[in-house]
Amino acid sequence: MNIRKFLTRFRTLDDLVTAWSVAPEAAAILRTAMREGTSVVVSGATHAGKTTLLGALIAAAPAHHRIVTVEETFELNAQAPTSSRCRVASPASKGPARCRCAGS
What we know:
InterPro entries: P-loop_NTPase, T2SS/T4SS_dom, T4SS_GSP_E_ATPase. By secondary structure, the protein is an alpha+beta fold. The chain has helices spanning 13-18, 24-36, 50-60; strands at residues 67-71, 83-89, 98-103.
């Protein structure tokens, strides 16, 4: 069993800058990427802060942008009017993985 507790105090890129987790220059680049709809890949080791960063990136996206999340376990909470949450089920011993989406 894995119990994950997410910190709610780091919801924006500004919060991450204040906590010295993201450099101000990097936050500016990421804000521009979100505003312009540029694809951003977030990867890293376990407990590196990927989910926290993704949450801040989602918060930086304009309200009219469509947000689609694909996760094995629902961890992100996209508060966007045009968002869809997809869950990927791990493949059974035989057969492909499945993806089920819900949302607007």
